Predict the structure of Gti1/Pac2 family-domain-containing protein.
Amino acid sequence: MSVVETFHGYIANTTDSLLLYEACRRGLLPRVSRRLQEKERNCLVRSGSVFVFDEKESGIKRWTDGLVWSPSRILGNFLVYRELDRRASQGGKRIIDAKEQDRDESKNDSDEAEKVRERALVGSLTNSYKFKKNGLIKKSMSIVVDGVHQNLISYYDIEDVMAGRLRTPSNVPELAILEISPDFLHKQNFRIPLLIEPGGEVTGEQQQDLPSPPPSSSSSTSSGELIFLFRHAAKKEKKNAGWMGSPLPKNKKKKSRRRIPDHIVCYIPI
């Protein structure tokens, strides 16, 4: 049986991954059923290719694609790898001379926004190794359902993503409307917890490196974890009563009063 990619596009976040897991569970998209052969790697491993496979179903314990990759780095709920120059891969880490560093700093100073966007695609894999020119980025995720690992492997070129050439599952109407099974949400060890509405709808995830602003109301929350917003009816403090109603010691005046907040936000990772 021939192997085809599960999806062609870009996996921007955890929600995109979960949509593909769900589509595969329903039989709407194909899972990889076996290891790729060499000739299949040459035509299938390209910018935009996304593969989903069940370890038990496919027999694949370790994904191989024939390319040379840097060590992995954590990027949100994913691991990312950057393709290395095969000819220079034996040399280890890249050494940057002073002139090249000055050029990079000058470029970064003039185009900080582009630098931030690129870092969101490659994480900390910027100048550390001898990367292949116009090489690929590999982005992977693994979750466990009923004791079996479900894996997702995606490939992309930085320029393709920044130019908007690759669509995301969230932007495909047929995928975006899918209700994600609780099996993919609960008991998963996500580093960046998901934001789930009371009805079970996944609405986002916490921004990595950026603080999430507090929600303005119980119905409108920013990205983040599973958030519950409780309204607290503050009671008037009793005379000669300490914090939370405990009595004050004799002959000791209360120095200050702590105000009970009107809203209490609880962040509960799932």
Remarks:
- Residues 192-270 form one domain.
- The first strand starts at residue 7 and ends at 8.
- The mean pLDDT is 74.
